[in-house]
Amino acid sequence: AEREESLKNAVVIFYHSEAEDAEKKDSVLQKFVKNTKWIAGKFNTKNVVLHSFNHLSISKSSPEFAQSLLDEVVERLERTGYTVMTTPFGYFNEFKMHVAGDSLAKVYKEF
Q1: What pTM was computed for the model?
Q2: In this structure, what DSSP letter does residue 18 have?
């Protein structure tokens, strides 16, 4: 069944978990949370949408690792007052969004 959800004034983060991330999970987790808070703060929001986007690299972690990393990121963000929405793995998602025109509208981070 189709389900539609919305979250206003949110930053949308397209993320990808690579195979080598499993070897440095603590560092990746810390940087993921830190960078998420940083970009959300730049837009003065605590609303975050996390979308797995496995087309960013040819290196992919196991689905189990990616899910465990995501679960920990969500838990840490929610614990500090963020509202977090995640999109399901492997689903086609339709997005309707407005992209801010400033230089922070599209930020790429690799760690």
Answers
A1: 0.82
A2: -
